[in-house]
Design goal:
CATH superfamily of the largest domain: Bira Bifunctional Protein, Domain 2
CATH architecture of the largest domain: 2-Layer Sandwich
Radius of gyration: 30 Å
Low-confidence stretches: 411-422
Helix content: 25-40%
Strand content: 25-35%
Bound molecules: serine, zinc ion
């Protein structure tokens, strides 16, 4: 690591004649200050002032121009902040002069990297990056404001350069996927595409909008049945309470949940929400009139009347919940907190053309959320897993399996990569990570050659959310959380894929909840 920073302290006045001499003493004093507490072997890596010049800016102001170089122990921009304090003291006390500003003239950083990236990249605030096999040489844009340094942004640039290279390697590999349990094989009653069956039977209808569907009465009734089953087999026995989570999510929430780091990078594809610049009727009158005359709208014209997005539509369902607990200290005896939400759809902008009912832009999900001490979270994750098994395998009588999936961000932390990619049994789910319940889809092909449908997940997330939303326990003991999501679209697609739409062929344990499936109109 090499840092080379040129900047100046601008003065609210002119240096007195003796300044030159005093400076020399002060730089010696400064260097001693910087070296204080630094271990011998790291001394080479701390900041050193390579060059300094007193210069006139105009007849009223002077500046102190500096070149500071360093290694990684005390990067030059950290030294800058300490020098500001040091020199404001000296200038104030001895010359009665204040520092009026700091100009960053140039900042070059040589960052150690594990390898040359497969694909070169650029970054905001960075004017050039040159990659060699072990170094990324970056030059920051000119006139970086000082609060950029104060807020830690330079350190995050350095980290980001390294992380992007590591991520390229990990993303190149498949997601870590390990089957940890499988149900027995079951004979499907159909091998047709469930979307086709459900359209044919009038259960669902595509709208004019991409990947959006209308649930007709039959599938709506089945959805309600599923809810009943979830309550009876999962939420009631484990003590989960229903809540209504917001569905419009401001940036603030996604900043804390960490989603914004991955926006449109594969995994977080939100719909954005814009509000009008004003709700004044006069402001909108031309739009209304235009429509009354042409019976059309001009979306571009509307765009001009909108503010930039305030955030987006709920994507992962649980993040907007966290405002409920944010900044709170909660009594120890309140834990564990167990909630579920199915109060409205969540949205994701699915790329590519039309998908079936298994992959929709507007999805109706059940979010299961748990917050508590680590032992409580480990226990409930295992309980949820067992109860989901009952629902999927027993009540719905489906063939499915469980896979231990490590998202790229956590496999980066060095877990799992060396494990053998074979079927192992994970008896107890008690570590940070995710179990996906995947249901066999006969229409997609043979069991061992086709993709099974990820229908439900159960995750242990550690302290990620509790920390980022500053939720504390009364005793100060660490809090963990976890969550799991499953959509009705996927549950029912998977069910119909194995069992069809004819209740005569459905499992007894499910039929117990259904008197008769309501039908829709007869379309002629
Ligand atoms: N919130 C989690 C997710 O979106 C579980 O539903 O994956
Ligand atoms: Zn969640």
């Amino acid at each position: 690591m090499k840092y080379n920073l040129q900047f100046s302290f601008k003065l609210r006045g002119k240096f007195p004649v003796e300044a030159q001499e005093r400076m020399k003493e002060w730089f010696t004093e400064l260097q001693q200050l910087l070296e204080k507490g630094i271990q011998e072997r790291d001394l080479k890596k701390i900041s050193k002032v390579k060059k300094w010049v007193l210069k006139s800016v105009n007849e009223k102001e002077d500046e102190l121009l500096l070149t500071v170089v360093s290694g990684e122990t005390m990067p030059a921009h950290h030294a800058l902040l300490r020098m500001r304090k040091f020199f404001s003291g000296k200038f104030g006390k001895e010359f009665r002069l204040g520092i009026s500003g700091i100009d960053i003239k140039s900042y070059k950083i040589d960052i150690d990297i594990p390898n040359k990236p497969a694909k070169e990249f650029t970054l905001p605030f960075v004017s050039t990056i040159i990659f060699t096999n072990d170094t990324a040489k970056i030059t920051l844009e000119k006139n970086i404001p000082i609060d950029f340094i104060e807020k830690g942004s330079i350190d995050r640039i350095v980290k980001l350069v390294r992380n992007k290279i590591v991520e390229q390697i990990i993303r190149g590999k498949d997601e870590h996927h390990l089957v940890v349990w499988s149900s027995e094989q079951k004979k499907p009653v159909t091998n047709e595409n469930p979307t086709d069956i459900m359209i044919k039977d009038g259960w669902i209808q595509r709208t004019s909008y991409r990947n959006q569907w209308i649930f007709a009465p039959a599938i709506s009734a089945l959805t309600e049945t599923l809810k009943e089953i979830m309550v009876e087999h999962l939420y009631k026995p484990l003590g989960f309470k229903n809540m209504v989570f917001p569905k419009v999510v401001p940036w603030e929430v996604w900043k804390r949940s960490g989603h914004l780091s991955g926006i449109y990078q594969g995994g977080f594809e939100p719909y954005f929400v814009c509000t009008p610049k004003t709700a004044d009727p006069e402001y909108w009158e031309e739009i209304a009139d235009y429509f009354r005359i042409t019976l059309e709208i001009e979306p571009e014209k509307i765009m001009e009347k909108l503010r930039p997005p305030i955030g987006g539509l709920s994507f992962a369902q649980c993040p907007p919940f966290w405002t409920y607990l944010q900044g709170k200290t909660i009594s120890d005896d309140s834990f564990p907190l167990f909630y579920y939400d199915w109060s409205g759809p969540t949205f994701r902008y699915e790329s590519g053309a039309a998908h079936g009912f298994e992959r929709v832009d507007e999805l109706h999900r059940i979010e299961t959320l748990y917050i508590g001490f680590p032992e409580q979270i480990k226990k409930v994750a295992q309980d949820l897993r067992a109860n989901f098994r009952k629902i999927i395998g027993d009540v719905l009588d489906l063939e499915f399996r469980e896979a231990w999936v490590t998202p790229w961000w956590s496999s980066q932390e060095g877990k799992g990569d060396d494990e053998e990619e074979s079927t192992i049994e994970l008896k107890n789910f008690d570590q940070i990570g995710t179990i996906d319940m995947e249901i066999y889809m006969p229409y997609r092909g043979k069991r061992n050659q086709s993709n099974w449908l990820e229908t439900q997940n159960v995750s242990i997330l550690g302290n990620k959310y509790t920390k980022n939303f500053t939720v504390k326990s009364q005793s100060g003991k660490e809090l963990w959380s976890g969550c799991g999501g499953g959509s009705f679209e996927r549950y029912i697609s998977a069910f119909v894929a194995q069992k069809g739409t004819n209740p005569d062929k459905w499992p007894e344990k499910l039929l117990k909840y259904i008197d008769e499936l309501p039908s829709g109109p007869t379309f002629l």
